[in-house]
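Comment thread on ticket #2218

A.B. wrote:
> Attaching the input chain for the structure job we discussed in standup.
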Amino acid sequence: MIAPILNDEHLGRVLNDMLRTCRYRLFIATADVKDVHLPQSGGRRARSILQEIEALGRRGVQVHLLHAGVPSGPFLERLKQGVPAALTMRRCPRTHAKAVVADGRRMYLGSANLTGAGLGAKSPRRRNFEAGIWTDETALIDPVLDMLQEVWRGEHCRDCGRKDYCPVPLEEPCL
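C.D. wrote:
> Ran it. Output below, let me know if you need it in another format.
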């Protein structure tokens, strides 16, 4: 399966599906991280991505979040209330890939950051125009996940030419 994902489909077709069905590990790569709120079915109140990560943790799912910039103020404020046990974050300023990989078996790869505007959570007049693919083809997933895991493990840190922007390689968020 290879399917195009456009605009608000990022939430409905991809992220909500991955959050609902992921069983072991969710790997998220994004340049920007914000406290995006995801709509719920049945008219229930939208939930923060961190609430969704907490729910994943209760199911035994580990979440790796690789990002480039300092998370938004509201996201950091929520982390100060308690980092979900299932969440491990790493920051590398060179991260520009946008990907979500569930259990190494399904992947979104495209332009959308982990923000409301990127995922289509904002109104049609305010969200970004985004495009990506959703696939279960391991020939596509494996090389992307391998590259992201190399960054996660710091395999590029020793020879990195951007150390001036990253004084603490793969730093965890300062709370």
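A.B. wrote:
> Thanks. Noting for the ticket: The chain has one domain: 2-165.
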